[in-house]
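Our consortium's second objective concerns turning raw sequence data into structural hypotheses that experimental partners can test. To show how far this objective has progressed, the report includes one record in full. It was chosen at random from the queue rather than selected for favorable results. The single chain below, 314 residues long, was entered without modification.
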Amino acid sequence: MNTASITGLRTHAADKTKFSTLEDYLDFAKKYLEYISDASRIQAVIVSQNENHYQFLQYKDAGFHNVTRPLNSRLFYTFAEFERAGRVFLQLMRNAREHNPSEQDRDLVNRTIYTAQQAIGATLDALPAGQSNTARKINGDLFERFIRLIIVRLGVACTAGTISIPIDVDGKTSFPMSYQHDLIIKSGEFVKAIGSVKTSSKDRIDKIFIDKFLFNKLTGKDIPHVAIFLNDVQRKGVLPRFGISATFLPGHFKGYTAKLNPLDGVYYCDIRPNMITEEILCDHIQTFDHFVFDDLWELLNRDAIVATIKQQTP
């Protein structure tokens, strides 16, 4: 791949077969970061009008002068920083269960995942405008795969696929029902937790809560349900005055948590300020490092069901 060409990077990012290991994700991020480290390759760096730590890159002719998604400069590593961060990240994934993480370790995990995934998303932003839906689908699929690869590297079995659960009526098993999930965390034949993995919660938060309610009502079991998001910001405005707006719906989240059922973990790499300060939100939403170092291991000790799983084709 020609790292000096956004065309070569774009072709690579659009091919999901190129991302089958954690190392694939990290290697691509290094190539993208090296590419954008040369200011002559970028048309412009645009600073968000309302939250200045978010920036947008505008590509030159080969990238159709497209502008990227907002990139959080507090999380997005530079090329020089990422070389070391990637190595430490892989070390942490090997012994996360026994490791007593420092704040620097936790920060590094969130930033490495954020940088690697946003490198893919920002590259796909260089696709022609008519392919924006395709870019979103590829980016979302690759984030789901990324999170599953991380969990497997942590030593925990997981997959995406369809769970077939037996439905009992009047004490007898009458028929099965099938549910498709982004993330099924397993221990042998037992389903230990179910997850939704999305780049943002936009238009999806309602379904996640309702999925937990229906699944547990049908099975009679309190199976943990978690949600993992990359961020919840999007670009707003017009060139050159871009800003960011939040896609998270705090009222919906609070209402479902208080009146339907709370989720068993909600995690972000790029967490919004109100998720840290507002009542209910701060009790139920955390940065992704908490899943890696703490909550995943507690989930494995929770209730479980035996279910038939049809694994999704990668």
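The partners drew two points from this record. The mean pLDDT is 94. The chain has two domains: 6-152, 156-311. Both points have been shared with the crystallography group to help prioritize constructs.
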